[in-house]
UniProtKB/TrEMBL annotation:
Belongs to the heat shock protein 90 family. Residues 27-184 form the Histidine kinase/HSP90-like ATPase domain. This is Endoplasmin homolog. GO terms for molecular function: ATP binding; ATP hydrolysis activity; ATP-dependent protein folding chaperone; unfolded protein binding. It comes from Anisodus acutangulus. It is found in: Endoplasmic reticulum lumen. The lineage of its organism: Eukaryota, Viridiplantae, Streptophyta, Embryophyta, Tracheophyta. The keyword Glycoprotein applies.
Length: 619
């Protein structure tokens, strides 16, 4: 093309495309849902803009917020068109090739180890999946602020953008044309496309229409000559036509000389039901539907089911409907970017209109592993995002969402037969089998979030503490605070714990000698975050936490007082000998059995392990 401007793909993107093209991965279906998902995102964007400025929608067909799919069977071209926001020339250049998203290299790495493409959408590079099935792709796009452009690439390391002077004007939106590769011929089939849309794009909130062929039987005159005659007269005026028909009828009655022939016509066929799942009565939604809905929300099309969900309707001053999911696995970057970026996974709708999925005011940071959506009738529709972010109802919504989320997690534990104190010997039902070990799985994936919650959320600290799991000197596997308390000796007032790098290392600690001898149970906190955690978690169910390596450990011992008296001289001498800036005090200890002495941290000081953590962080 004369006016084409050429660009090179950014290196990571180029690598990704190479991998996709050469992929032997058999499930190439995903390209269609990625394109439909992008079309849906673009429609969401224009609908959102239209809330405050009706003009952006234009007029005529442009106002129809829909997705259209067409197939040219002979040329093997699939085209997917939306009336979304479209892309300017600059958008095309940046979004489709030159600026790599943060997930690009992470996804490339993942591809090389697992070879699983299913999560491509989660990494923000779903568009490139088109090259699984196409060897040449055109993206025609019209944005309100720019002319119509064509982006095209044969995935040979380069792409071109040209001002579009030859295609039909789109009005607004994007059309993606996939020129199918020979090996992907199976997609040049309407039934296949229909099946894919039904399977993967059920929960898209815009109509998806397919330009579908339809065989119709038509009666035509049996005589070839007559049909030609008919065509020849088709230019006649309507009055003459009527006359002709009359004549025809009369002739037909005499000798019925018609035959039936099949003819192919085309019309738009709606493929999805746009009724939002969250508006339905939870009792009427099946588990399978929730699972599928989760997959479409999370862009996760593996076979994994979400661990749990909660679908509810909040009434009162602030009305909203919400569905929350606990994903089967933690996303790849959940904790990596925890303190820098915070990306909530909740979609906010106001009266069925998608507003944003970057609304961080809905959930606290520590719950950002949850997926789901909120649709509120109380929030105003035609205000800016900034105004909405400050709306007072958000606080109420947030509070209720946290409550529901924590309830959902608590239930996950309660329903898990492995978690109960009194393990019943009842024959296990299938249902129980499925729930066995589910909380351990949850804890494995998201336990850290619960700990971060204890640090950040003072209001719900106790509820969150109930969800904690850890190992102890007596437990075989993980246990909870409630279970610990139920095993406490009657003479024991505090909850004992010790922090360190691993259970194995801690088991040898001299701090545990006396406690073990006296049969007290001690919690092992072995995660670096536990040190911080215990600075916030002071008590639980009226019991104080006592770090057994810190000052303050009181074990009932009648002899302590006596010993204190008789060794007064020694402790005094010792304290003076070690200059006062080396130790704070020297005391008779009741915590040892065999070891002659230990260094103990003062009550408010850093534990030895904390010192170690801090030291390694400053290096
Ligand atoms: P993601 O959808 O996760 O952002 P993709 O690789 O699927 O990643 O798409 C990249 C970007 O290209 C999108 O973020 C969007 O800006 C742009 N884009 C893709 N398809 C469309 C479309 N149909 N209309 C408008 N913009 C689009
Ligand atoms: Mg996408």
């Amino acid at each position: 093309r004369a006016n084409a401007e050429k660009f090179e793909f950014q290196a990571e993107v180029s690598r990704l495309m190479d991998i996709l093209i050469n992929s032997l991965y058999s499930n190439k279906d995903i390209f269609l849902r990625e394109l439909i998902s992008n079309a849906s995102d673009a429609l969401d964007k224009i609908r959102f803009l239209a809330l405050t400025d009706k003009e952006v929608l234009g007029e005529g067909d442009s106002t129809k917020l829909e997705i259209q799919i067409k197939l040219d069977k002979d040329k093997k071209i699939i085209s997917i068109r939306d009336r979304g926001v479209g892309m300017t020339k600059e958008d095309l250049r940046k979004n489709l090739g030159t600026i790599a998203k943060s997930g690009t290299s992470a996804f490339v790495e993942k591809m090389q180890t697992s070879g699983d493409l299913n999560l491509i959408g989660q990494f923000g590079v779903g568009f490139y999946s088109v090259y699984l099935v196409a060897d040449y792709v055109e993206v025609i796009s019209k944005h309100n602020d720019d002319k119509q452009y064509v982006w095209e690439s044969k995935a040979d390391g380069a792409f071109a953008i040209s001002e579009d002077t030859w295609n039909e004007p789109l009005g607004r939106g994007t059309e993606i044309r996939l020129h199918l590769r020979d090996e992907a011929g199976e997609y040049a089939d309407e039934y296949k496309l229909k099946e894919l849309v039904k399977k993967y794009s059920e929960f898209i909130n815009f109509p998806i229409n397919l330009w579908a062929s339809k065989e119709v039987e038509k009666e035509v005159p049996a005589d070839e000559d007559e049909s030609i005659d008919e065509e020849e007269t088709s230019e006649s005026t309507s009055e003459e036509e009527e006359e002709e028909e009359d004549v025809e009828k009369a002739e037909d009655e005499k000798k019925p000389k018609t035959k039936k022939v099949k003819e192919t016509t085309y019309e738009w066929e709606l493929l999805n039901d746009v009724k939002a799942i969250w508006l339905r009565n939870p009792k009427e939604v099946t588990d399978e539907e929730y699972t599928k809905f989760y997959h479409s929300l999370a862009k996760d099309f593996s076979d994994d089911k979400p661990m749990a969900w909660s679908h509810f309707n909040a009434e009162g001053d602030v009305e909203f409907k919400a569905v929350l999911f606990i994903p089967p696995k933690a996303p790849h970057d959940l904790y990596e970017s925890y303190y820098n970026t915070k990306q909530s996974n909740l979609k906010l709708y106001v009266r069925r209109v998608f507003i944003s999925d970057e609304f961080n005011e809905l959930l606290p940071k520590y719950l950002n592993f949850l997926m789901g959506l909120v649709d509120s009738d109380t929030l105003p529709l035609n205000v800016s995002r900034e105004m909405l972010q400050q709306h007072h109802s958000l606080k109420t919504i947030k509070k209720k969402l946290i409550r529901k989320a924590l309830d959902m997690i608590r239930k996950l534990a309660e329903e898990d037969p492995d978690e109960s104190n009194d393990k019943k010997d009842v024959e296990e039902s299938n249902d129980e089998n499925e729930k066995k070990g589910q909380y351990a799985k949850f804890w494995n994936e998201f336990g850290k979030s619960i700990k971060l919650g204890i640090i950040e959320d003072a209001t719900n600290r106790n509820r969150l503490a109930k969800l904690l799991r850890f190992e102890t000197t007596k437990s075989d596997g993980k246990t909870s605070l409630d279970q610990y308390i139920s095993r406490m000796k009657s003479s024991q007032k505090d909850i004992f714990y010790i922090t360190g790098a691993s259970k194995e290392q801690l088991e040898k600690s001299p701090f545990l000698e006396r406690l073990n001898k006296k049969d007290y149970e001690v919690i092992f906190f072995t995660d670096p975050v536990d040190e911080y955690l215990m600075q916030y978690l002071m008590d639980y169910e009226d019991k104080k936490f006592q770090n057994v390596s810190k000052e303050g450990l009181k074990l009932k011992d009648s002899k302590t007082k006596e010993l204190k008296e008789s060794f007064k001289g020694l402790t005094k001498w010792w304290k003076n000998t070690l200059a006062s800036d080396n130790v704070e005090d020297v005391k008779i200890s009741s915590r040892l059995a065999d070891t002659p002495c230990v260094v103990v941290t003062s009550k408010y000081g850093w534990s030895a392990y904390m010192e170690k953590i801090m030291h390694s962080q400053t290096l």
